[in-house]
Write a structure and sequence with these properties.
Layout: H1 6-9, H2 15-38, H3 44-63, H4 67-78, H5 81-95, H6 103-126, H7 133-159, H8 170-191, H9 195-211, H10 218-231, H11 235-251, H12 253-266, H13 268-287, H14 290-294, H15 300-307, H16 318-345, H17 352-369, H18 376-393, H19 414-417
Helix pairs in contact: 2-3, 2-7, 3-6, 3-18, 4-6, 5-16, 6-18, 7-8, 7-9, 8-9, 8-10, 8-17, 8-18, 10-17, 11-16, 11-17, 12-13, 16-17, 17-18
Length: 422
């Protein structure tokens, strides 16, 4: 018999609880259904909708009568090493405006970014400890609907039909978001023991990524599939390995530029345009080695590309921009935060952890390789992923038993995860 969430079942007797449940469902529906489909129409839709959805979820926590619990959780999180690192990174980014080439523009962008991050964290902290299945079903519906719309639009273009025409850039970006959210939706289906549906959802998203017009989502989807396969039997160990690998890739970005520069110098014909564009970063580093340590100030990479200080064809990603803007300290802080995030995700449990790691790996791959990750919509997309993934994790209390583990040490931990279901 499924355990009941008494805090929600009392909603019929408490108008405030009833209103809280309605706001929670409305806010979560924005993240789970509206954003995956609406992002196809315009990339700015996600920028507008994420704050609205987050505020609705925070208001639902206020109506549930526990706003101080949210603030206490936030305070406790800030007191941890990752929390202190995040606070340092925010302070360092603000301080870097002092030597940024366009401090006014940078200040506007940094406070917008920090606002999105803070709203996303508050929304995560405001989620109830037990999410209702009726809310979480919206994740699978939203992902499937978004993928189907992409496929319908592609079929329409192939047949010369104007039934559904999408802006040129949005299907690729939406496919990347769907790849990340698709893993969360599949995790929920696995929790409900719907393995065939989970496989069908992943297959549908894979088709949308593979057939998409831009191909931005193909590499993230492939990496996600590989990580899922490797993490299925031992998610915690896989999380630790991925944490070290992701942190190393961020910290060693200048070394990557050096290697690309050497390859391009020794064998320019073999290197190809991709390596040549990465090698341009080594020329930038040689021209200003001090900037590697101090950074050039927040938003200086975007400003440099706009003004011609940086070559237009240079391989720009969020990681390269962090290095250029915030220098060694900012890059190491980001590396530590990503390291912590992968480790935490690897400990989420038997059903959620492998797919959660796949979602993070897909998102990190896009962040590491594509220029689109430097834009505002992607920061909002990461907030959507965090809220949806945590929500799915908090829906496991309705399951009865975890599947058997083949790794040592995990069998003793799994029953405590599902203790509320017994």
């Amino acid at each position: 018999m499924e355990a009941r969430d008494h805090s929600i079942s009392k909603a019929t007797l408490d108008p405030a609880a009833d209103a809280a449940a309605m706001l929670l469902r409305l806010g979560f529906a924005i993240f789970a259904i509206v954003i995956p489909s609406a992002t196809l129409m315009s990339r700015w839709v996600i920028v507008v909708l994420v704050p609205i959805g987050a505020v609705l979820i925070v208001l639902s926590a206020v109506l549930r009568g526990n706003p101080f619990r949210v603030l206490d959780d936030l305070r406790h999180s800030l007191a941890t090493l990752p929390g202190l690192t995040a606070a340092f990174l925010a302070i360092w980014a603000i301080a870097s405006l002092a030597w940024a080439p366009a401090p006014d523009t940078g200040a506007v962008k940094i406070f917008k970014s920090l606002g999105v991050i803070l709203l996303g964290i508050l929304a995560v902290k405001s989620l109830p400890q037990k999410m209702r299945a009726s809310n979480l079903h919206l994740v699978t519906i939203g992902v499937a609907l978004g993928a189907l719309l992409i496929l319908i639009a592609l079929a329409g273009d192939a047949l010369g039909s104007s039934l559904l025409r999408l802006p040129a850039a949005t299907p690729g970006r939406s496919a990347v978001l769907l790849v990340c959210l698709g893993w969360a939706g599949a995790a929920w289906l696995l929790i409900k023991n719907r393995r065939r549906l989970a496989l069908g959802l992943v297959g549908l998203v894979f088709l949308a990524a593979l057939l998409g017009p831009t191909g931005e989502a193909i590499l993230p989807m492939g990496v996600g599939l590989l990580v899922f396969a490797l993490a299925w039997a031992m998610p915690e160990r896989a999380g630790n390995i991925l944490a070290a690998l992701a942190a190393a890739l961020i910290a060693a970005a200048p070394l990557t530029a050096l290697i690309a520069g050497l390859i391009h110098k020794v064998a320019p014909d073999i290197a190809g345009p991709a390596i040549a564009n990465v090698a341009l970063w080594w020329d930038v580093i040689r021209a200003d080695p001090v900037g590697v340590f101090t950074g050039h100030g927040f938003d200086s990479a975007v400003s440099g590309r706009d003004t011609g200080k940086l070559p237009q064809q240079i391989h720009a990603t969020l990681v390269s921009d962090i290095w250029y803007d915030l220098g060694l300290l900012g890059a190491l802080a980001c590396a530590f935060l990503v390291h912590s995030l992968f480790r935490i995700t690897g400990r989420l449990g038997l059903e959620v952890a492998p797919l959660g790691l796949a979602a993070l790996a897909s998102a990190f791959t896009y962040t590491l390789t594509e220029r689109g990750a430097t834009q505002t919509w992607w920061m909002n997309g990461l907030a959507v992923l965090a809220i949806v993934l945590v929500s799915v994790d908090r829906g496991r209390y309705r399951t009865v038993r975890p599947r058997a583990s083949v790794s040592t040490g995990r069998g003793s931990e799994a029953p405590s995860i599902h203790a509320s279901a017994s």
